[in-house]
Write a structure and sequence with these properties.
Layout: H1 2-36, H2 45-63, H3 73-97
Length: about 100
């Protein structure tokens, strides 16, 4: 019984860290695309910021002590989707705010 509680908490902690990191990296990628790269909405430079943010997350998770090798395809797709979603919404808001 105590083991199940510990497993549940560690699983919850892992989920919270992965979700938070994916969300923060999505917003950071949008800010990099807008302010650092000055990417145009029709160019590919903004997408490069997104891809960089996605690829940067897995070494960061590994350094944080999470076993990235245990990630399933579903976990990878979740990270990509969350990062893309936050990047898309944030960059859209930044682009329309400057118009």
């Amino acid at each position: 019984m105590a083991t199940e509680t510990v497993d549940r908490r560690s699983g919850h902690h892992r989920s919270m860290v992965v979700t938070t990191l994916a969300s923060v990296m999505g917003v950071a990628a949008a800010m990099v695309a807008e302010f650092v790269l000055a990417a145009s909405p029709t160019g590919n430079t903004g997408v490069l910021a997104l891809v960089g943010a996605i690829l940067l997350q897995f070494p960061v998770l590994h350094l944080a002590g999470f076993d990235v090798e245990d990630f399933s395809t579903k976990d990878y797709l979740y990270v990509v989707f969350m990062t893309f979603s936050l990047w898309f919404v944030s960059w859209t808001l930044l682009l329309t705010a400057g118009a």
